[in-house]
Design goal:
Layout lengths: L8 E10 L8 E9 L11 E5 L3 H5 L7 H10 L12 H15 E9 L5 H11 L11 E3 H7 L12 H17 L12
Parallel strand pairs: 1-4, 4-5
Antiparallel strand pairs: 1-2, 2-3
């Protein structure tokens, strides 16, 4: 008997932590969360993936680093940001394309919290590496606009850990659409 095929998701959340606040920022973390917006996220088993690219491998491609952003990271981190640590960005981009093909429906929506940064950066990196964007560009969506249109707020704080932020943003979307998960009743025991 053949194994059951992996579940394909209708939505992908991408978060990038970079070395600049510009759309051509050299990333030092990339987080992905595959999920289905049509059902509450707390009823799913979303797929969370974290990548740690070498910022140097992106700088070689012309991506930016700013002193002000490095100072900001120095205040947030317990140790200095190592721009050469991590995997080559080209390898990570190949993995992201493979992840999309494995976990997402071909017409999946691709989300980020402000498309002018995260998705612009990924698209630019793919372009500079002569790789095709694996999703349909017209399926890109913005979390902030979605929540604003519903009159909702982001439920969770940004941790500035890309994989956690991607999951938190997906959770905010799900909660805005379906409501928060029911609270456990402290008076009853399992």
């Amino acid at each position: 008997m053949d194994p059951e095929p992996a579940k394909k998701f209708t939505d992908l959340m991408i978060d990038i932590e970079g070395c600049s606040d510009l759309p051509d920022a050299a990333p030092h973390e990339i987080g992905l969360t595959f999920f289905n917006l049509a059902e509450p996220i707390w009823q799913q088993e979303p797929v969370n993936i974290a990548y740690h690219p070498s910022a140097i491998s992106s700088i070689v491609l012309g991506m930016s680093v700013t002193t002000s952003t490095l100072k900001w990271w120095a205040e947030k981190l317990t140790k200095p940001l190592n721009l050469s640590a991590g995997d080559p960005i080209q390898d990570i981009l190949f993995n992201i394309i493979a992840d999309f093909k494995e976990h997402a429906m071909p017409d999946a929506r691709v989300w980020s919290r402000g498309n002018a940064y995260d998705l612009s950066s990924i698209r630019l990196l793919l372009h500079r590496c002569n790789l095709e964007i694996p999703w349909q560009y017209w399926r890109e969506r913005d979390v902030r606009s979605f929540l604003d249109a519903l009159g909702k707020e982001t439920r969770r704080e940004q941790t500035h850990i890309a994989s956690e932020d991607a999951f938190n943003q997906a959770t905010s979307l799900s909660d805005a659409k379906h409501g928060a998960p029911p609270k456990a009743d402290a008076t009853t025991s399992p």
